[in-house]
Amino acid sequence: MPELLIATAAALLVVLAMVAGRLLTTTGLEDIEAEYAPEVAPRLRGFAAVLDVIGAPVLPVAVRLHGRQRLQQLDTSIRRAGRPEGVTLTMFVRREAALVVLGLLFGLAFTLQGLWFIGVPLALALSAWMRLWLFGEANNRRQQIDTELPDFLDVLSVTVTAGLGFRQALERVCEFHGGALAAEMRTALQEMNVGVSRRQTFVALRERNRSAAVGTFVTALLQAEELGVPLADALTSIASDVRREHAENIRQQAARAAPMVSLAVTATILPGALILIVSAVLIANAGVLGEFL
After folding, report:
1. Which of 123, 180, 247, 291 is least surrounded by Cβ atoms within 10 Å, i.e. has the fewest?
2. Global pTM value
């Protein structure tokens, strides 16, 4: 136990030394921030700020190890997740590098004490934490968009039927809607306002979200535009199709959850029932069993 405390204290001293080095020196990160995150992110506090400080010295190395292609893919993944908590590409790489450093330090400290079965999983968990967090945020955003899309299209259809053009109706609906879908539509409106065609804008919207409901909406909208179908009727039909598809997905998720619920009930109730039955048998036959013992 004293050896474990010494190793942990040594790891913490290394982390503090890295923080002090960052505070006393400069690493020239302004160029990287300007390339990948031109917007100034708000200053964070707490554990995220600690990760930023720890990961800053190793950020240039992490950027070089990723390479430009992987950084572009990672930036696409962050945009698809809606930039949760205002995270930028640089912030993500910096915090991921900090967690990798912490994972290596604590994993090594536990492994040197013979506790590799704790150190190795801890190092792996810390190293993969940012990717898992980003995947979870992207999945939650996709589910939110799938849920909001039918009602959004219903309101948009009513607004178009009232006589507004598609772009004006979209702007009006976005004014009274929040959430991930409205944010994506505002981005689409900004692209159209700078001269991007409607088709290119909505194709980019579909690629940016990778949502089945959004893909159905964009495909049907572009087909209706090409075939000359009235926009209000097309939006109503698309909303019905998207709502039907969403309901079918919910039913499929419920069907997949039923076996898991049965397994959980069996795993929790069956052992308890067996313990009660065996205990009752042993208590009832305590006298008989005592004679044999």
Report:
1. 291
2. 0.69
